[in-house]
């Protein structure tokens, strides 16, 4: 019974997010997703268009996602892995190597990002209309 855990802001939910979540769910039986809080986004240097509540509702409505929870800071992942009995931690490969310290707790996998789409590119294209 593999539980997969991942994290992200998931602002302006798009096919890059969906294709990642679909592949993550296929890795196990359950997928839990940590959604970055608005305060944690500030720490990450991001401002999201949608609030934490809206982003959590949208990702929670995705059929590949079994549960969402709040990501408040960088240091909570080990506690989350233990709390959810996660056996696989996975992220897009823009994070490759950055979470290898989690290997003692669960498998760590980096999946290929979907090319040509990102929240940043959506925002910049919209700002030029
Ligand atoms: N992603 C993807 N393809 C894209 C865009 C995003 O596969 N075209 C993936 C990212 O690699 C990430 C996830 O979708 O695994 C969520 O992306 P973001 O919302 O940008 O998440 P990020 O700000 O990287 O937050 O503690 C970890 C951080 O919270 C990760």
UniProtKB/TrEMBL annotation:
Key word Nucleotidyltransferase present: yes
Keyword Amino-acid biosynthesis found: no
Keywords associated with the record: Nucleotidyltransferase, Transferase
Occurrences of domain Cytidyltransferase-like (ranges): 5-123
Any one GO molecular function term: nucleotidyltransferase activity
Protein name: Adenylyltransferase/cytidyltransferase family protein
Organism: Shewanella yunxiaonensis
Residues represented out of the complete protein: 2 to 130 of 156
């Amino acid at each position: 019974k593999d539980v997969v855990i991942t994290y992200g802001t998931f602002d302006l939910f798009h096919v890059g997010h969906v294709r990642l979540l679909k592949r993550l769910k296929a890795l196990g039986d359950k997928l839990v997703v940590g959604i970055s809080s608005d305060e944690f986004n500030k720490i990450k240097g991001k401002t999201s268009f949608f609030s934490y509540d809206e982003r959590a509702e949208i990702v929670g409505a995705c059929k590949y996602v079994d549960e969402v929870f709040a990501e408040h800071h960088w240091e909570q992942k080990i506690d989350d892995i233990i709390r959810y009995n996660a056996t696989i931690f996975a992220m897009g490969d823009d994070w490759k190597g950055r979470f290898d310290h989690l290997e003692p707790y669960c498998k760590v996998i980096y999946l290929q990002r979907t090319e040509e789409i990102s929240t940043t590119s959506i925002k910049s294209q919209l700002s030029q209309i």
